Amino acid sequence: MRKLFLLMLIFLSFSFNTWAEDTPKAPPKTKKTPDLETVDKVQFGDWSYQCKQKGKVKRCVLVQNPKLKNGQQILTLIITKAPETGKIWLIAHTPLGVYLPTGLVFSIDGGVKQSIPFRICTPQGCEANVVMSKGLVQDIKTGIQMKVGFKDGRKYQEIVIDVSLLGLTNAIAKLNK
Predict the structure, then answer these.
(1) 6-62 pLDDT, tens digit each
(2) What DSSP string runs through the chain?
């Protein structure tokens, strides 16, 4: 009986070692891919022109983080040019908890209100974006102030944020280069 037990033990240890060798190992560790490197940053009035590069790909954006009257920052506005199409995009990032059906509403210098639907919400917040028409680009370049609004999804209260357009004419010119 003792010999049988030893034989089984030897067999099992051999089988386990063979199985362990056939089990796929964790993939080899690779070097972390470097993050995008900031290669250009210029301030144009209240807008920041920022370019980041990864390899030969360079992506530039105009950014403003306007604040509420109490100093709280709950909106990020980005203007960028799609390299594939040359079209200029307006992108707005808001916190989670916005009332999605009404979208994001904006007007320039008290003009006509325009609405942009929210496209996606992630754990970082919600995004509304739109391709800007030539007329809208011109209005933003010549305007002084934009009001951006959205509704709080819990209280259904409208939150309106004043956004300075100071510096956008030169910033958009640099973005178009």
Answers:
(1) 333 333 333 333 334 443 333 333 334 456 677 899 999 999 999 999 888 889 999
(2) -HHHHHHHHHHHHHHHHHHHHHSPPPPPP-PPPPPPEEEEEEEETTEEEEEEEETTEEEEEEEE--B-TTS-B--EEEEEE-TTT--EEEEEEE-TTB-GGG-EEEEETT---EEE-EEEEETTEEEEEEEPPHHHHHHHHH-SEEEEEEEBTTT--EEEEEEE-TTHHHHHHHHT-
Q: Give the number of residues written for the chain.
A: 177
Q: Which residues contact 119 (CB under 8 A, 6 or more apart)?
A: 127, 128, 129
Domains and CATH numbers, the chain: 37-175 (2.60.40.1880)
The predicted model scores a pTM of 0.77
Query: Left, alpha or beta for 156 (phi > 0: left; psi -120 to 50: alpha)?
Result: left
State the residue for tokens 């709280």: 72
Place of tokens 């964790």: 26
Count CB-CB contacts under 10 A for residue 96: 11
Type of residue numbered 95:
P
Residue 91: exposure state from Cβ atoms within 10 A (0-12, 13-18, ≥19): middle
Going by C-alpha positions, the residue among 12, 36, 25, 106 that lies closest to residue 66 is 106
